[in-house]
């Protein structure tokens, strides 16, 4: 059976806790009201979720694709709009740096 490396599992657990605490509550209402949780995105940035693949010398986490996938999967379970924002930021915006 496949198990995530402990460093990735810890990151995944942190993302799951963040998503449950800050994203899941009110996600449906925000979708209906066409609102975006900008403050939650700032919190995600503070946790390093906006620079998962970016090397540390450029201010990122320097994680690999497995870690990025684990984080994004947990975020997607709670709020699709935040997931898409983080995914696009980490791929299209940060790829040239990583």
Please, could you describe this protein's structure?
This protein has 98 residues and is mostly helical. Helix 4 runs antiparallel to helix 5. 27% of the residues are buried. The model has no long low-confidence stretch (mean pLDDT 94).
Q: What overall geometry do the principal axes of the alpha carbons give?
A: globular
How many β-strand stretches? 0
The total count of helices amounts to 5
Q: Please state the CA-atom Rg, rounded to the nearest Å.
A: 13 Å
Strand-pairing-aware structural class: mainly alpha
Give the helix level as a range of percent: 55-70%
Order of secondary-structure elements = HHHHH
Would you spell out the secondary-structure blueprint of this structure?
Layout: H1 6-23, H2 27-33, H3 38-46, H4 65-78, H5 80-93
Helix pairs in contact: 1-4, 4-5
Short description:
The chain has 98 residues and is mainly alpha-helical. It contains 5 helices and no strands.
What tags apply to this protein structure?
single chain; 98 residues; mainly alpha; 63% helix
